[in-house]
Amino acid sequence: MAVTGLIMIGFLLMHMYGNLKMFYQADNFHAFDHYAHWLKGKTDDGGILYPIMPAGTFIWVFRFVLLASVILHIWSAASLSAKTLAQRGDKYSNQKKKVQTYSSRTMRWGGIIIAAFLIFHLIQFTIVPGSLGAGGSGDQPHRMVLASFSLWWMVVLYAICMVLIVMHIRHGFWSAFATLGGNLSAKSRQLLNVLAIIVAAVLFVGFMIMPLAVLIGVIG
């Protein structure tokens, strides 16, 4: 669960970087469109990792790894929950709540909501490009982005989902490195907590600044 979680955090950081290319509006958003097509091997240079991989191959390997990570992450969560319930029953005999963050207490529900948003997001921009309020087409990815985030309710929905995602990540980042042996002392635990907050904050700001810029007309 820790490893697959970190893989997905790495993906989000890369995805955020790609989204920020929307701020470079010169030449009709060529940088953003080129980046989107480059990942899929549709550019003149053969795309990412060409010629190590045939053009268009990397994106499918990447999708497979990401999908496997999501499935294994959910399976791990379900397995751990089942073991917990089997060992303690439906309720604890003696329950005393210790200091916990809100995100740590809502990891299961947060994960379910994030999975639903991921499906929505993939349909909107990848599986059926331009659907569910996005508009435009896959040929010009920037048009889908502009059409989607020019809708205030879409930006609000996106913001709510991003809050849930970074809450999940804040606890998940700390928990992943703790599981892998990174909390050997009070100082290391404190450092992990600070890093988790920084990563969550960077992702929230990095993902939200572009939709807000589109909504208020800075990008367009």
Radius of gyration: 20 Å
Largest sheet: none
State the secondary-structure class.
mainly alpha
Overall structural domain count: 1
What's the number of extended β-strand segments? 0
Q: What percentage of the residues does DSSP assign to strands (E)?
A: under 5%
DSSP summary: helix tally: 8
Distance between the termini: 40 Å
Helix content bin: over 70%
Provide the residue-averaged pLDDT: 87
Order of helices and strands: HHHHHHHH
Shape: globular
Low-confidence stretches: none
Write structural notes for this entry.
This protein has 220 residues and is an all-alpha fold. The protein has one domain. It has helices at residues 2-19, 26-39, 57-88, 102-105, 107-127, 141-149, 152-179, 186-215. The chain is globular, with a radius of gyration of 20 Å.
List descriptors.
220 residues, mainly alpha, 8 helices, 0% strand, globular
Show the helix and strand layout.
Layout: H1 2-19, H2 26-39, H3 57-88, H4 102-105, H5 107-127, H6 141-149, H7 152-179, H8 186-215
Summary?
By secondary structure, the chain is mostly helical. Helix content is 71%, strand content 0%.
